[in-house]
From TrEMBL:
One of its GO terms (cellular component) is membrane. GO terms for biological process: calcium export from the mitochondrion; intracellular calcium ion homeostasis. It is found in: Membrane. It holds the Pfam family Na_Ca_ex. The chain crosses the membrane at residues 150-169, 181-199, 205-227, 248-275, 287-306, 318-336. GO terms for molecular function: calcium:sodium antiporter activity. This is Mitochondrial sodium/calcium exchanger protein-like isoform X2.
Amino acid sequence: MVYVAAVLVSAYIYNYRKRSINGPTPVQTPDLLTSGEYSESLNKSIQTYDEEYQPLLPHTLSTSQILLGSLRPVDSRRWRRKPWTWRVLKLVKMPLEVLLLLTVPVVDPDKEDHNWNRPLNCLHLITGPLVCVLTFNSGQYGLYLIEGEFPVWALVVLFGVFLAAIVFCSTTNEHPPEYHFLFSLLGFVVSALWINTAASEVVSVLHMLGIVFSLSNTVLGLTLLAWGNSIGDLVSDITIARQGYPRMAISACFGGILFNMLFGIGLGCLLQMFGGNHIVTLEPEGLLCWILSGALGLSLVLSFVLIPLQCFHLTRAYGIFLIVFYFIFLLVALLTEFGKIHLGAL
């Protein structure tokens, strides 16, 4: 919390001083567009091009046509323009995309209608809570029988149908209701539970691979689990940086790690204390624990020293240095785990 407050306060002070010194920000000319603004203008031009295919006469779609159109994962014209490799990958991802479309509502404030889709959002009121109750704690509560006869998931479905009927009868296809923003909260909860379910399955698969190949949990955590846990951040940060927001990407790198270490470990230990253990003892398991802690501390100290020395201008050489540092750490940690490096050898 102190870290987040410090970032927000410092950003506010920086922007305030910048405005007081430079005055109001001048309007950018078209030839000085950033990459993000250029991509936005390009998307608008593509959207205008697609609108040429719309009928000239006003045409109102029925509710069933709106629902079927919203569940279509790809446009036919875009499908024809893409190469065969993109089509094959799209066919692999299509079942998951349709599943997410059916269960996760998305509210987009940049759109005029805030991405309001009356039949699909009403369907989300049924599928969203159902996903929550079937994925939370591996579906233990969803499969529970009330009085030994009526399952909880059926009760959730009935409640969702009741809410969906109220929303469907009190809204129109053209205008979103005033409470449409509440669907973003439902989408956040459903997305978090989907991610938690996928992560739990990945951990189970990795544990099974460790048993089959006689690998310890430490090796799995250092390699497959660490890479799988970070690949989403890697892709998103690279995408953000290429779109012209390097500061946002670097902030996400450090902010995500801080959130995982401080909030994740802090909340986990706090919950364990509430369970009856008032003191959580972290016992180091040999030399490997010290190597992990030392490598983490050394990388943070190097970043704390080298980045200010470079006047906060990160060069290609510094990025190569970090990659080499990671592979050296991984090699030393694996050699220690397999017994090639031990205290006796030191």
